[in-house]
Write a structure and sequence with these properties.
It is a single chain. The chain has helices spanning 28-50, 52-60, 70-76, 83-110, 118-121, 148-158, 164-172, 181-191, 210-226, 246-264, 270-294, 304-317, 322-340, 366-374, 397-412, 417-420, 424-437, 452-455, 458-468, 487-500, and strands at 124-127, 143-146, 201-205, 231-234, 351-356, 376-381, 442-448, 471-477. With 520 residues, it is an alpha/beta fold. It has one domain. Strands 2-1-3-4 form a 4-stranded parallel sheet, with helices on both faces. Strand 5 (351-356), helix 14 and strand 6 (376-381) form a beta-alpha-beta unit. Helix 4 runs antiparallel to helix 13. It is globular. The structure holds iron/sulfur cluster.
Length: 520
């Protein structure tokens, strides 16, 4: 019985505590497969913790404790999944977990407080998590590492309360309390002196907004003045759709490359660049193929399976890790199989939705909840609608010049930034175009209350949705801070709309109200 999708009430496993009462039963084959992936994750964690320098880091950095929640995060993103959807989720999560473990390992290797490998550190350039790493596509011997990814961005996906301490530290220091919790937490980590110290230099970019710039300033001060790590400030144009800014943007890329060469003594490698460029195109082609599938009656790669993977693949990886191209291929094979067999992720699809705005990070598995609880299919989301252009991938003299423009284009169109900046066309007009293309009847609009780039447009979204007859469901949240809007308060905004406007009953009533305030 439990082999069937929707056979078990998923809300019954929530205990009110950190962990669930038991694992989900998905029939013999899927349960065994799921369990084997759980063992794999545990082995990854075990292998990571066994290294003495990682144990040392566990005790040095407060945010490291959140990594105990990795298995719980994977479980959240696989709730109710069977067959190809379960395999897609695990393929992605396994790779993302592996990649983050590698990032942590590298950070602690070079960290002056932990591994203190000075030779290694000389070949490291630090990157903000809120920035594309495409400028590293021609440096096979230099590592571009982000400290914010493992200290703030990933922990919030693991544990909803992960960065509350750092948000408070930022405010106690005197910085404004209404700033976005993402840059606030990143600044808080730096103020708390809780970030690894390493690298021959750092690149900061004017992504994604005023809050992000503020946090870069705080972090930059500690890096340059106290740690002696010089920073290159890359100013990517905000009007990224305009032709007249592209030349300037390309010049910024050249300047950033010159900075990396000067700081590390390494030389730009065109062979490696074009190898990475091919893989960026593989990722873009695969994503466009999945999105086309999602325009039909049988969408296949959507929700968490699309969003979390796209963010990692596009920004942090940017063609530099071959394993992602292999997973792109495997995901496409699974999607093809499911599509040919007219398979569905939930027992019933009632509404087709575009998810817009910047999503709440402490409740990223909300996309899966939408399908499981109400049969709302999140066909795509704002952060997954990134670059759709193919970049030059053959090594020719003309393409070497084009490559600078391509890297600039990728950087300007970084996730979030490509919609929160760039004008009406990218934030408003394209939403309605996507609604038509994907045949969506609903828009779930994340309203991140501290994101000034988006909240100012509230009225215009309302007006247009009314004109087009699209159901617009607002979901307020505060990105990294569940004290302001909790997971249940997020769910209730959907629950209320579904009951009062659509007058529907949930597919799985046990998911409507969950006692998960204390869960990871
Ligand atoms: S969510 Fe908005 S305010 Fe926060 S970092 Fe992104 S653009 Fe800036």
């Amino acid at each position: 019985m439990a082999k069937e999708i929707g056979a078990e009430e998923l809300g019954r496993f929530i205990t009110g505590g950190k962990v669930k009462s038991r694992r989900e039963w998905r029939g013999i084959e899927d349960t065994l497969y799921d369990y084997s992936r759980w063992l794999y994750i545990m082995a990854q964690l075990g292998g990571f913790i066994m290294k003495p320098r990682n144990i040392k880091a566990m005790f040095r950095y407060r945010w490291m404790a959140n990594y105990l929640g990795v298995p719980a995060m994977v479980d959240r993103h696989t709730q109710g999944l069977r067959g190809p959807y379960l395999r897609m989720a695990h393929l992605e999560q396994d790779l993302v977990v592996y990649d983050v473990a590698k990032l942590l390992d590298n950070l602690f290797r070079g960290d002056r407080r932990i591994g203190n490998d000075e030779e290694f550190s000389k070949k490291v350039i630090l990157f903000d998590e809120n920035e594309m790493t495409s400028v590293m596509m021609g440096f096979p011997t230099v590592k571009g590492l982000s400290r914010e990814t493992p200290s703030t961005y990933v922990p919030v996906l693991l544990n909803q309360k992960a960065v509350l301490h750092y948000i408070d530290v930022c405010q106690e220091y005197g910085l404004p309390g209404d700033v976005c919790p993402m840059p606030a937490a990143e600044a808080g980590v730096s103020i708390d002196d809780d970030a690894p110290i390493l690298g021959a230099g750092a690149i900061q970019c004017n992504t994604t907004c005023d809050g992000s710039l503020l946090s870069n300033g705080v972090i930059g001060k500690r890096l340059e003045v106290e740690d002696g790590i010089p920073i290159f400030q890359m100013a990517a144009p905000l009007r990224h759709q305009e032709d007249d800014v592209q030349e300037y943007a390309a010049q910024e890329i050249k300047n950033a490359i010159a900075f990396v060469e000067e700081r590390t003594g390494e030389k730009w490698d065109w062979n490696y660049y074009f190898e990475c460029a091919k893989r960026v195109n593989i990722a873009t082609r695969a994503r466009l193929y999945w999105l086309d599938m999602n325009k039909t009656d049988y969408p296949q790669v959507f929700g968490s399976n699309l969003a979390l993977y796209t963010e990692t693949n596009y920004m942090a990886i940017s063609g530099k890790v071959a394993a992602f191209a292999d997973v792109d291929q495997k995901l496409t094979e699974l999607a093809d199989y499911a599509y040919k067999n007219k398979m569905m992720m939930a027992k019933e699809y009632r509404h087709r939705a575009i998810v817009w705005g910047v999503q709440s990070h402490f409740y990223f598995d909300f996309l899966l909840w939408l399908v499981n609880c109400w049969g709302i299919v999140p066909l795509t989301d704002m952060l997954s609608m990134v670059n759709t252009r193919m970049i030059a991938e053959e090594d020719t003299p003309e393409n070497r010049e084009q490559a600078y423009r391509d890297m600039a284009w990728l950087t300007e169109n970084m996730i979030m930034r490509n919609r929160t900046h760039g004008g009406y066309k990218v934030l408003l007009d394209q939403l309605w175009e996507y609604c038509e293309e994907f045949n969506a009847d609903t828009v779930i609009l994340w309203e991140h209350m501290a994101c000034k780039a988006l909240t100012g447009m509230h009225g215009q979204f309302e007006e247009k949705a009314r004109e087009k007859g699209i159901h617009l469901i607002w979901v307020s949240h505060d990105l990294f801070d569940p004290r302001i809007v909790s997971r249940q308060e997020i769910r209730d905004q959907i629950n209320n709309y579904m009951r009062t406007v659509f007058r529907e009953e949930p597919l799985d009533p046990s998911l409507e109200v969950l006692d998960d305030d204390n869960a990871w």
